[in-house]
Amino acid sequence: MEKIKVEHLVKAFDGPEGKTRAVSDISFSVEEGEVFGVIGLSGAGKSTLVRCLNLLEKPDSGEIIIDGDNLKDLKEKELTKRRQKIGMIFQNYNLLMQRTVLDNVCFPMEIAGVKKKIARKKALEYLNTVGLKEKAKAYPATLSGGQKQRVAIARALAAEPEIILCDEATSALDPETTDTILKLLKQINEDFNITIVLITHEMRVIEEICDRVLVLEEGKIAEIGEVKETFESPKTVALKRLLLTGQSDVLLSETS
Ligand code: ADP
User: Fold this and answer.
1) Quick one: which of 103, 166, 222, 252 could link to 217 by a disulfide (CB 3.0–4.6 Å)?
2) Are 146 and 69 contacting, i.e. CB atoms less than 8 angstroms apart?
3) Residue of the nearest CA to atom 11 in ligand 1?
4) Of all protein residues, whose CA lies closest to atom 16 belonging to ligand 1?
5) Which of the listed residues 10, 26, 47 should we mutate to test ligand 1's pocket, taking the one with most ligand atoms within 8 A of CB?
6) Is the pTM of this model over 0.85?
7) Residue to probe by mutation, ligand 1, list 9, 11, 13, 42, most atoms within 8 Å of CB
8) In a 10 Å sphere around its CB, with 0-12 CB exposed, 13-18 middle and 19+ buried, how is residue 59 labelled?
């Protein structure tokens, strides 16, 4: 079943030479329960694309259809409810530094009006899921990068999301910690049937947990398909370049 359908999505920004399209007429869909990866060079439009999915960025034109409903057609209240079911995890964790780990995880439930006692009980369960129950009373500043990202994942889970968008979620982490976070994402994908859309500049992140991959180049789809097939027989220069280095940013700095 299609969880997310994107049709003719366009998003442009004002640049030094007038409007430039960060995302240029993109159409694709993501199946329910899938881990879907988006990879491309720095500036390819990955972040803009993923931010359009939950309307953090308002598309200029095109459709975002979730569970068969076009987000454009939803009334404000319904749209807010839908957006609450789309969690997001960022490279820099976006934790509230003045709050304890537990209170960070309680935050989305506070916004949703969940009673404090129930919220705390659920938050502890989510912290248990990510293996951080013993850090409930700690402050984010005392945690490692991997632990901070676990808190961010627990906080995303607290909104009982159906979709989680990951924007370079492991890019600030060392390889070993990256592996443990990817395993955790795969586990919550399977245990909670959460559809995951993940953007990254690292090939191995895609190889590790994604079912399908979309290769983005200058705001357009260069390739899309099953990870193994796509990486084994790259058809475009964009993907061949990525395969050469494994990291799109390395390539960009070497060629620019
Ligand atoms: P990626 O995530 O692949 O690195 P982005 O989506 O961040 O790519 O950026 C795509 C293009 O859109 C880039 O040229 C970038 O400079 C531009 N862009 C992104 N966000 C903005 C913004 N808020 N204002 C102006 N230009 C932007």
Assistant:
1) 222
2) no
3) 22
4) 43
5) 47
6) yes
7) 13
8) buried
DSSP state of 172: T
Ligand 1 mean position to 115 CA, how many Å? 39
56 lines ligand 1 (CB under 6 A): no
Give Cα 180 distance to the centre of its chain.
Answer: 17
- The residue written with tokens 């964009």 in the block is 238
Name 189's Cβ contacts closer than 8 Å, sequence gap at least 6: 33, 35, 195, 196, 209
